[in-house]
Amino acid sequence: MSRHLVRTAFTLVMPRWNGWPSDLHEMAEAFAAYHPTRAEQIRAAAVRGHEPTGDPVVLRSYVDDLGPWLAEEYARVHGVKAPRPD
After folding, report:
1. How many CA atoms are closer than 13 Å to the CA of 56, on its beta-carbon side?
2. Which end of the chain has less Cβ packing within 10 Å, N or C?
3. Record's superkingdom (predicted)?
4. Are 62 and 1 in contact (CB under 8 A)?
5. What is the reported pLDDT for 37?
6. Is residue 7, in this structure, part of any structural domain at all?
7. Domain count of the chain?
């Protein structure tokens, strides 16, 4: 879950950063430059991407705070994709 959140966060700044690094920490730092208020959360998620935890407090923060913020920000920046046809 942590890796996915970091990668999703990076997509918010990828057009300005001009590339796609494979390193989660590099993604987190690039994101942090543009979204300093969420920087520590993404940096911590990058660490957990390499050292996963089942800590319910961490997981709840992803589900209740960071995840919804990323979804809203992603929709604002990139728009909402149309559903795939059946």
Report:
1. 0
2. C
3. Bacteria
4. yes
5. 96
6. yes
7. 1
Chain mean position to CA 30: 11
- In the numeric block, which tokens belong to residue 66? 């960071």
Q: What pTM, to 2 d.p., does this model score?
A: 0.86
Q: Which of 46, 64, 65, 62 is nearest to 54 (CA)?
A: 62
Structure tokens at 12: 């918010």
pLDDT, tens digit, 9 for 90 and up, residues 4-60: 999 999 999 998 888 889 999 999 999 999 999 999 999 999 999 998 888 899 999
68 is a domain residue: yes
Domain that holds residue 34: 2-78
Instruction: Say how far apart CA 46 and CA 4 lie, in whole Å.
Output: 10
